[in-house]
Write a structure and sequence with these properties.
Layout lengths: L16 E3 L2 E3 L4 E6 L5 H14 L4 E5 L4 H17 L7 H10 L4 E4 L7 H10 L10 E5 L7 E2 L2 E2 L2 H19 L2 E6 L20 H5 L2 E7 L9 E10 L6 E7 L4 E4 L12
Parallel strand pairs: 3-9, 3-10, 4-5, 4-6, 6-9
Antiparallel strand pairs: 1-2, 7-8, 10-11, 11-12, 12-13
Helix pairs in contact: 1-2, 2-3
Length: about 270
């Protein structure tokens, strides 16, 4: 047992990288909550792409989209990074951008078979994820992760908390950072900013180290772009904060505040 007098100056929340504007630390579980179609999958895809570029093992395990759909979005995001929201992109620049993140793993998962344990085995044995060390795993999304109980598969109402607990244990066991998209209760899509808005039992927000809420920010544009606001509902690593993101709908790209000047004029 540790004694307070011998602990020194521990730093459990030492970030190993900031990807798509969000810092990550070993062993941390983040939940990203939003209404359907807001852009949470695209934001996590950008995180995984940037982590892979930085040489960090990175994967997106998706219960919602096929690998072809994810690759399509990834290519459009590469266009956004090289040419902005609407301008034509140079093909060589796009290919160069994609090549830098070619080690990113995109997995299409089954909500009947691909449990947290199965996902862990695939990443370690097939893709060389570290047994202990920094890595980024994005899961889309928490409420579709299959969880097997004593009497069989748990239903949607009761499995969210257990899925969150299993992901948290996975993050701590290997020192990976995990971010999982989470669903909101139907009546909370455009209301409130509190942890009770998350779908599932009370363990869902309890197990997470950080909970973020992604909402429309009220900005109006003549193009397909949308202003978004990210609210911190919970953060064990430090003070809560809110910040803005601009979702470039034409290219499935969540642009940071520092990239606003690349928006440009809409085509057509």
């Amino acid at each position: 047992m540790s004694r307070a007098g011998t602990l020194g100056n521990p730093t459990p929340y030492t970030f190993f990288g900031t990807f798509a504007g969000l810092p990550f630390w070993p062993g941390g579980l983040t939940l990203l909550a939003a209404a359907p179609g807001i852009g949470k999958t695209s934001w996590m895809l950008r995180m995984v792409q940037e982590a892979a570029e930085a040489g960090v093992p990175a994967a997106l395990g998706c219960y919602e989209h096929t690998p072809q759909e994810l690759k399509y979005r990834l290519r459009l995001q590469a266009e956004a990074r090289s040419a902005g929201a609407h301008q034509p992109a140079d093909e060589l620049a796009v290919e160069t951008c994609l090549a830098r993140s070619s080690e990113a793993v995109l997995l299409s998962l089954s909500d009947r078979e691909d449990t947290v344990r199965a996902l862990e085995d695939v990443l370690i044995n097939d893709y060389g994820f570290p047994l202990k060390g920094p890595a980024l795993l994005a899961v889309d999304y928490l409420n579709r992760v299959p969880v097997v109980g004593l009497t069989g598969m748990l239903n949607d109402a009761s499995k969210g908390g257990e899925a969150a607990a299993q992901l948290r244990e996975l993050s701590r066991r290997h020192g990976w950072a995990i971010i999982a998209a989470a669903a909101l209760r139907l009546e909370q899509f455009e209301q409130g900013q509190e942890l009770s808005a998350l779908l599932g039992d009370e363990r869902v927000p309890y197990e997470a180290d950080r909970v973020l809420l992604m909402q429309r920010g009220g900005g109006e544009y003549r193009c397909t772009c949308t202003a978004l606001r990210i609210h911190t509902l919970k953060d064990r690593t430090g003070p809560v904060r809110s910040w803005s993101v601009m979702f470039w709908g034409e290219r499935f790209f969540p642009a940071l505040e520092s990239e606003a000047e690349k928006h440009g004029a809409a085509r057509g």
